[in-house]
Design goal:
Blueprint: E1 2-4, E2 11-13, E3 20-24, H1 29-40, E4 43-49, H2 55-66, E5 70-71, E6 80-85, E7 97-98, H3 103-113, E8 120-124, H4 135-143, E9 147-150, H5 151-154, E10 156-162, E11 170-172, H6 178-188, E12 195-198, H7 206-213, E13 217-221, E14 227-231, E15 240-242, H8 247-259, E16 264-271, H9 278-285, E17 289-298, E18 301-309, E19 317-318, H10 330-339, E20 343-346, H11 359-369, E21 374-377, E22 380-384, E23 393-395, H12 400-412, E24 417-420, H13 432-439
Parallel strand pairs: 3-16, 4-15, 7-8, 11-12, 19-20, 23-24
Antiparallel strand pairs: 1-2, 2-24, 4-6, 5-6, 8-10, 9-10, 12-14, 13-14, 16-18, 17-18, 20-22, 21-22
Helix pairs in contact: 1-2, 1-7, 2-3, 3-6, 4-6, 8-10, 8-12, 10-11, 10-12
This protein binds shikimate-3-phosphate.
Shikimate-3-phosphate binds near residues 104, 179, 204, 327 and 328.
């Protein structure tokens, strides 16, 4: 059972009742940002079904509206309409653009705005976002002729962008980051000459899929699609986008359904893009009872329903080759590791240290407060399984995925827990607490 205490942000969590029923997770966060951004710079109207009505996409929409893009109100179950202004139509905003907690908003905006000649933009965000590295985008953009300045030698927001004519380039990105890649692809759309982005490992490819559907000239090559070439010159055409459910939100139910005795959940309409399904592969190796059914392609993305039942789980090893395909699922997998048989190891995951929080440190600290046995490494965690956790005061430390992961851990602990700053879940899954209450028997 979970319920609100008097203080809005502290949530009491208890109980091991099974989770039973059907749940439709909200729209994919990555795809929602891209639908808004690409719709804004397309010619004509873009409609979006299933757009995630959560804080992060709202930040993207707010920035775009401040630059003259008309976007209908983003509400639950609304079909959103975006009136595109064309590749060069964004206006210089009168105010600083606030990206809130959203790294995707800030990084993709950098790429979108760097080539908007004669216009000046300032981007900022909340305390977490102002600590996150931005040079990983600013530096390759500079190689295309961009002028991006900011604190800490251009690495930290607030950032200022003076729009310029960019030129195409061949750019090897140092990290497998879809945010960096997507920023460069956006910049490439109005550069002079073609641009090739080469990633060290294949990151999520929603931008490539959707840009191509909007009419951009994109070629994908190299092993595992790591080379992405953009030829500028084509305008984008408004589209009808359908956003599948977010597998990163489904992950909480997949793990909770596996761990909580007698649970049986059907998670409907989950995006199954192969660049995102690392969690399903790891869970299969763990011996989880998972069945995928009714798989189909909807608007260029694979989608399906997933049935998960409680069962015994074995430990897992994750290394850097898999990390890009489950980067956002590490917090909930850390929870799973505490309850499965044996010792689990996560390595090659130093990117987790520059997410909304340092997720390796925060998950280790908060799960230890519940009695877990976790060793922290520079690039990962070693987690002892078969733990009996005990309810305690825990804290999301403002991180949405930490909040939801700790909620599942607290449900599996003996006794009550108090989760501080639980409201962070609204960044990606505003209905999480309602869904939890409804599914718990
Ligand atoms: C995202 C990419 C990932 C992910 C983030 C969303 C995206 O970040 O962690 O939640 O929409 O492109 P990186 O690409 O920086 O790893």
């Amino acid at each position: 059972m979970s319920f609100n205490s008097n203080s809005s942000s502290i949530r009491l969590l208890r109980g091991k009742g099974p989770l039973i029923g059907k749940v439709r997770v909200p729209g994919d966060k990555s795809i929602s940002h891209r639908a808004l951004l690409f719709g804004a710079i397309a010619d004509g109207i873009t409609t979006v079904e299933g757009l995630l009505p959560a804080e992060d996409p709202l930040s993207t929409a707010k920035c775009l509206r401040a630059m003259g893009v008309s976007i209908s109100p983003i509400e639950k179950e609304a079909k959103i309409q975006i009136e595109g202004v064309g590749l060069n139509g964004l206006q210089e905003p009168e105010e600083i653009l606030n990206c809130g907690n959203s790294g995707t908003t800030m990084r993709l905006m950098l790429g979108l705005l760097a080539g908007k000649q004669g216009r000046h933009f300032v981007l900022t965000g909340d305390a977490s976002l102002r600590k996150r590295p931005m040079k990983r985008v600013g530096q390759p953009l500079e190689a295309m002729g961009a002028l991006v300045q900011g604190r800490s030698n251009g690495n930290l927001a607030p950032l200022s962008i003076s729009g310029r004519q960019l030129h195409g380039a061949v750019i090897g990105t140092p990290v497998a980051s879809a945010q960096v890649k997507s920023a460069l692809l956006l910049a490439a759309l109005t550069a002079e000459g073609e641009t090739t982005v080469i990633e060290p490992a294949h990151s999520r490819d929603h931008s490539e899929r959707m840009l191509r559907a909007f009419g951009a000239q994109i070629e994908i090559g190299g092993d595992m699609g790591r080379h992405i070439k953009v030829r500028p010159g084509s305008s984008l055409k408004g589209q009808e986008v359908i956003v599948p459910g977010d597998i990163s939100s489904a992950a909480f139910w997949l793990i909770a359904g596996s761990l909580i005795p007698r649970s049986q959940l059907t998670i409907e309409n989950v995006g199954l893009n192969p660049t995102r399904t690392g969690i399903l592969e790891v869970m299969k190796e763990m011996g989880a009872c998972i069945e995928i059914f009714d798989q189909k392609d909807i608007a260029g993305e694979p989608v399906g329903n997933i049935l998960v039942k409680h069962g015994t789980l074995k430990s897992f090893n994750i290394n850097e080759t898999l990390i890009p395909r489950l980067v956002d699922e590490i917090p909930i997998l850390t929870v799973a590791a505490c309850f499965c048989e044996g010792v689990s190891k996560i390595r090659g995951a130093s990117e987790l240290r520059v997410k909304e929080t340092d997720r390796l440190a925060v998950m280790a600290r908060q799960l230890k407060a519940l009695g877990a046995n976790i060793e922290e490494h520079d690039d990962g965690l070693t987690i002892q399984g078969n733990q009996s956790l005990v309810g305690a005061s825990i804290d999301s430390e403002t991180d949405h995925r930490v909040a939801m992961s700790l909620a599942i851990a607290a449900m599996l602990a003996n006794g009550d827990s108090q989760l501080a700053r639980s409201e962070a879940a609204a960044v990606s899954y505003p209905d999480f607490w309602d869904h939890l209450e409804r599914l718990q028997q």
